Automatic annotation (TrEMBL):
<keyword id="KW-0121">Carboxypeptidase</keyword>
<keyword id="KW-0645">Protease</keyword>
<dbReference type="Pfam" id="PF13715">
    <property type="entry name" value="CarbopepD_reg_2"/>
</dbReference>
<protein>
    <submittedName>
        <fullName>Carboxypeptidase-like regulatory domain-containing protein</fullName>
    </submittedName>
</protein>
<dbReference type="GO" id="GO:0004180">
    <property type="term" value="F:carboxypeptidase activity"/>
</dbReference>
<dbReference type="InterPro" id="IPR008969">
    <property type="entry name" value="CarboxyPept-like_regulatory"/>
</dbReference>
<keyword id="KW-0378">Hydrolase</keyword>
Length: 578
């Protein structure tokens, strides 16, 4: 039995080693050997062939990498790095990302010249100079760093650097500077051979400067960190933990913008490459790339990539790409692209892309493009595209197209294809009709009908002059039109009306259900008439109530539900304009 277990253990070790080697090869496409036989083909087509053979892609810009040159290559086996050197004659730099080789122009070369390298107790103390390879001139602000430990520094005006690195075995220093080809040099000591997974890679997203250009980035990200970003380009490393007091004063120093952390603790504020776990900031958090799972700050969060999970800030969350999850801020939230989930702010929410979320704001929500979900605001909701969800606002809802439900005092849309409830509903394709009519309660009435056939609103006012009893009414109603053809339709309408006589203290109310037959005589003129069922309620006794009750009492077919509530069948007839 023990022998079998030993055999299984060795098999497991072999498989694990194979997996590690496979992963290493997948990440080392530049040293992959390929065979080619192409004649008079554009470099772009040849790169496609090489990528297909290696099962990866080349990433480059046609504006800066000239790939329209024609080449002929015949080789039974050559590394991809050597082929690229032949194609571009050393004027292009190559960096690897997962599944990609990134090409970028590097018209200049540099040299790293070490002055001293002392290695007591596995701690390297290295100093030297970085020079332009062609002119010999010293290069200022070149990044000198170790990819494994993330120790780094910048050269001074004389090209000089000094760096302390703790390393076991071989130390490889890399020098990077914008517009120069990266150069690496090895420092040897006692070598212990072991297989260690790489904790770094290259990503085009790491070259973004959106966070640095934000007002917080301009204020707190140092010039040295910005230079590192330019020099190192897409270099990214992953580490478990980082701590900082302020950007630049933390465990990763100038390299903080190139590092993605599983846990990030920023006592006042921090600047990182990204977060794959949890980040906490006393005042603010700044991230170049994606953040997922949990981010909280006392004042501000700024994310240059995508956010996913929970994001909380005392004042503002600003996501420069998309957000998926819960975003809550004491004052306002900003998402430049797609928003999916929940967004809550004390003052306002802003989304620049498609929104499928619940949005709540004390003042207003603004979605630049289409939205689907639920929007609620104390003052206003604005959608630049099509609103397919529910909008609720204290004052106004605005959208290019309303296909969902909109509820506010005023609803405005270029195209109203959904349902809008408000005192006024304005749209280019909807109703804007003036109604002049009479009914059995008030002699003369004027109303304004807005919305569409699916759902319209009517605000009205009227006066009664008959039987020497003068009183007034004002009302609000909603309805639906059943369209038979271009001329004929039927309106089903419900409304409530307040009746006033001798002051504003009267509390007399009539609720009506009406069925109105409509005849359209012309493009802007029509007639309507129909029956209604009315329920009258008097809530208190004031001067003038007796006049109103006397008129109601004389209605034919009156239904008596007590001293204060009556019912009857009535009528309405009038004309519609516009």
């Amino acid at each position: 039995m023990e022998k079998r277990l030993n055999i299984l253990f060795y098999i497991f070790l072999v498989l694990a080693g194979c997996l590690l080697i496979t992963d290493a090869l997948a990440q080392d496409n530049l040293n992959r050997v390929v065979a080619l036989n192409v004649k008079q083909k554009k470099i772009a087509d040849v790169l496609t062939v090489i990528g297909e053979k290696g099962k990866f892609y080349f990433s480059y810009s046609n504006d800066v990498i000239k790939t329209d040159s024609v080449v002929s290559v015949t080789t039974s086996g050559q590394t991809i790095r050597n082929l690229l050197n032949e194609f571009f004659h050393g004027k292009v730099d190559y960096k690897e990302a997962q599944g990609y080789i990134i090409l970028r122009p590097t018209p200049y070369r540099l040299s790293l010249v070490p002055d001293s390298a002392i290695n007591p107790a596995n701690v390297y103390y290295i100093s030297g100079h970085v020079l332009d390879d062609n002119t010999g001139a010293p290069l200022e602000n070149a990044s000198v760093y170790d990819k494994g430990t993330l120790a780094s520094t910048l050269t001074d005006a004389g090209g000089y650097f000094k760096l302390k690195v703790k390393a076991d075995g071989v130390l490889t220093l890399t020098v990077s500077k914008e517009m120069y080809k990266d150069t690496s040099i090895n420092f040897l000591s006692n070598v212990n051979v072991s297989i260690k997974p790489r904790n770094y890679y290259y990503s085009e997203g790491a070259t973004s400067t959106k966070t640095e250009r934000s007002w917080l980035g301009r204020m707190f990200v140092s010039s040295g960190q910005k230079i590192q970003n330019l020099n190192l380009g897409g270099f990214v490393s992953k580490v478990p933990v980082q701590t900082s007091f302020l950007p630049g004063l933390g465990s990763h120093g100038l390299m903080s913008g190139q590092v993605i952390n599983n846990f990030s603790l920023n006592l006042l504020g921090g600047y990182n490459g990204g977060v794959d776990g949890v980040e906490l900031g006393g005042l603010f958090n700044l991230n170049k790339q994606d953040v997922q799972y949990m981010q909280a700050a006392g004042l501000f969060n700024v994310v240059g990539g995508n956010s996913e999970g929970v994001q909380l800030a005392g004042i503002n969350n600003n996501d420069l790409k998309s957000m998926k999850g819960l975003q809550a801020a004491g004052v306002f939230n900003m998402v430049k692209d797609t928003l999916t989930g929940v967004q809550i702010a004390g003052i306002f929410n802003h989304a620049g892309g498609y929104v499928n979320a619940f949005q709540a704001a004390g003042i207003y929500n603004y979605d630049k493009k289409d939205s689907k979900g639920f929007m609620i605001a104390g003052l206003a909701n604005v959608t630049g595209g099509t609103s397919k969800g529910v909008q609720v606002a204290g004052i106004i809802n605005k959208a290019h197209v309303i296909k969902g439900f909109s509820f506010a005092m005023v609803n405005v849309a270029d195209t109203l294809d959904g349902y809008a409830i408000g005192l006024v509903n304005i749209s280019k394709n909807g109703y804007a009709k003036i109604l002049v009519y009479s009914d059995e309660i008030t002699t003369a009435n004027l109303a304004f009908k807005t919305g569409n056939a699916k759902l319209y609103s009517v605000i009205s006012g009227g006066v009664n002059f008959t039987d020497q009893h003068t009183f007034y009414s004002y009302g609000f109603g909603v309805g639906h039109d059943f369209i038979f053809n271009d001329r004929y339709s039927l309106s089903a309408e419900g409304s409530t009306h307040i009746l006033l006589a001798k002051g504003w203290k009267n509390q007399n109310q009539v609720n009506r259900l009406s069925a109105l037959f409509n005849f359209k005589a012309g493009s802007k003129f029509g007639f309507f008439a129909g029956p209604s069922f009315n329920v009258y309620t008097n809530y208190s006794d004031h001067a003038g109530d007796s006049d109103i009750r006397q008129i109601i009492k004389n209605k034919p077919g009156l239904i008596d539900w007590g001293n204060r509530t009556k019912g009857w069948i009535g009528w309405t007839a009038g004309i519609s304009l516009l």
